[in-house]
Amino acid sequence: MSKQAVILATHGTVEDLDDLAGFVTNIRRGHAPPPELVRELRHRYEAIGGQSPLNEITRSVARKLEARLGVAVHMASRLWKPLVSDVIGDLGAARLVVVPMAQHSSPIYVEAVAKAAQALSPSPEVVGVGNWGQTPALLDAFERRVRALAATLSAAEREASVLLLSAHSLPKAIVDAGDPYAREAQAAAEAIAHRVRDVFSHHEIAYQSQGMSPGPGGRPMAWLGPDLPETLDAIAAAGLRRVVFAPIGFLADHVEILYDLDIEAKRWASDRGLSFARVASLNDDDDFVEVLATLARPLLA
């Protein structure tokens, strides 16, 4: 049995669009999605080239992180292949170090690995990184990318811009029940906005990618807001002319970035007379991999 391994725990995504119905069924805890939802999701994936780059980016991160740590690093997903249970079952490691690729809701991912580990015999020890969205090195990485985009704009263009920091929305019922996600995301966004206030004096925080499924009994589901359309309405009403998206709730390009922002939100901005720009994602860049290494090293035996 190998001594230890690092698990990059992800939400998951499909690589074959025919798997979308199964993937969404897992997200909906076993409830099959309506056909129109699957059709809409398929349209979104097709609009970005037919496949999300998220898995390949995460595999690249795993390879780079493994080289830095000198310990095996594996990607494992909660909701689609490669599933956590399959990955750790094949490893035979005595100790698993979990690095969640969701900085504002890490305990959910650590718990998923721990639960799968309990089904193994012998059961490996599981240790994990807690919420890390306010880690200074991560904030540094986001700040660098905001400043890189700001450097492409004139002083007058920056003054007419709003830095719109976004994170994935959640059903409001989850937040109301005490989940710290919104508090964590808000704090990280405010920290980044404070750091770059010399280049973007205006900023807003919004939640994107609200779900398309109804709530229990077919009733509309309330989602954490403000959402992007109402935030863009307010920006346009204030007489500003440019919106600079900084999706600080996300770590890598995937459908929520490449479609929800680069296609849909860009169209919404144009409809309101706003120019659109987006800050680059962290993806598998070396400075981001070093952030993950800094998180993992203290947990290695």
Structure description:
It contains 13 helices and 8 strands. It has helices spanning 20-27, 35-47, 54-69, 84-91, 106-118, 136-150, 155-159, 172-176, 181-195, 228-237, 255-258, 260-271, 286-296; strands at residues 4-10, 73-77, 95-100, 125-128, 161-168, 203-208, 242-246, 275-278. Helix 5 links the parallel strand 3 and strand 4 (125-128). The radius of gyration is 20 Å and the shape is globular.
Task: Give keywords.
globular; Rossmann fold; four-stranded parallel β-sheet; 8 strands; single chain; 301 residues; 2 domains; 13 helices; 45% helix
The class by helix and strand makeup works out as: alpha/beta
> Please, what is the average pLDDT?
96
Largest sheet: 4 strands, parallel
Rg, Cα atoms, Å: 20 Å
Task: Assign an overall shape.
Answer: globular
Instruction: Write the element-wise H/E pattern from the N-terminal end onward.
Output: EHHHEHEHEHHEHHEHEHHEH
What's a concise summary of this model?
This protein is α/β, with parallel strands linked by helices.
How is the secondary structure organized here?
Elements: E1 4-10, H1 20-27, H2 35-47, H3 54-69, E2 73-77, H4 84-91, E3 95-100, H5 106-118, E4 125-128, H6 136-150, H7 155-159, E5 161-168, H8 172-176, H9 181-195, E6 203-208, H10 228-237, E7 242-246, H11 255-258, H12 260-271, E8 275-278, H13 286-296
Parallel strand pairs: 1-2, 1-3, 3-4, 5-6, 5-7, 7-8
Helix pairs in contact: 3-13, 4-5, 6-9
